[in-house]
Amino acid sequence: MKKRFLLCTALLSCTIMARAQKPDTAQVLVHYKFSHIRDTTNREHPYTENMVLIVGKNAGVYKSYDKQLQDALFKKQVQEQAANSPDGHVNIQRRSSGSGTDYYQFPNGKKLARKEPLLFNSYLITDAMPAIEWKISGDTATFGGLHCQKATGHFKGRDYTAWFNPDFLLHIGPWKLNGLPGVIVEAYDTKKEVYFKFDGIEKAVISPQKSDQPTGPAPDNQGRMAVIIGMDDQVGDPNIIQLPTNAIKTTEKEFSKLQEAMRKDPNAFAQSMAAAQAASQGRPAPKIDIRIGPQPVINNPIELPEKK
């Protein structure tokens, strides 16, 4: 227990809060039906999630749309219950839905940042934008009124087909996919075990004080929420694309150590993290009891080892 506590304290001490990144304003939102066959023994039931790529002029962020909607509902319920309670008491069981991992792409600086939640904290891991050697073909197709071109490329052990719209000035895509002259609106690997299926596009709602205009073609609105609620708490305007300033900046190696400690003994890990935070604030450590249910079988991760 003491060893784990010291490990967590050391890891926390060598991390720093993410520095403020120059914010960008969302221009359009591209929606995807993401599916991933994580368990090859159960191909009939892939993991699925509604995702969104928020595209700005200079940056973009890919995140869970399901989680954003769930967060929006939770915030609304908290506000309503607090307003209607004489003593301000709130008692709402929060449902967990969707991935909390966000991917920020900064093509001009060739940087990729990933925000990962882990218990009470969010961690920020920054790396270079992965380079993908794409081959653009003459094939074309239309997705939601967007005229797209086809490209193929190899990335993280898989061969991908991507359809991109060249009318957008920002060269990004879902997840870590990038490097094509436009926005990738649909992509899938050869076996279609990983599929970012196009599910609509819409304009972001620009606040009255904003004068920025969309950089891409006028999208068709499919009746979704154009204002995304549930982004990082410190961002007041949901159309602002900015790295979370309350996330702890760390490295892939350090974060892997934290994940491993969490996996081996969730209760000891949670208690040590809480104790470290309490000590830094000069207060006693709370008693924590973490219960984690069965974990999904993942024998086919999205990133595969390269064949030698």
Descriptive report:
The protein is α+β, with helices and mostly antiparallel strands and 308 residues long. It has helices at residues 2-13, 65-84, 252-264, 266-280, and strands at residues 16-17, 24-25, 28-36, 47-55, 60-64, 102-106, 111-118, 121-128, 134-143, 146-155, 158-165, 183-189, 194-203, 240-241, 248-250. The strands form two sheets. It has a 13-stranded mixed β-sheet with strand order 1-15-8-7-6-5-4-3-13-12-11-10-9. Strands 2-14 form a two-stranded antiparallel sheet. A hairpin with a 4-residue loop joins strand 12 and strand 13 (194-203).
By DSSP (H or I, 4+ residues per run), the number of helices equals 4
Task: List the secondary-structure elements in sequence, H or E.
Answer: HEEEEEHEEEEEEEEEEHH
Counted beta strands:
15
Strand coverage percent: 25-35%
Shape verdict: globular
**Total domains:** 1
- Cα separation of the termini: 41 Å
Radius of gyration: 21 Å
By secondary-structure content and strand pairing, the structural class works out as alpha+beta
Uncertain runs with pLDDT below 50, 5 residues or more?
Answer: 1-20, 209-236
| Residues in helices, as a percent range | 10-25%
Name the quaternary structure. single chain
Mean pLDDT: 81
| Biggest beta-sheet profile | 13 strands, mixed
Strand order of the largest sheet: 1-15-8-7-6-5-4-3-13-12-11-10-9
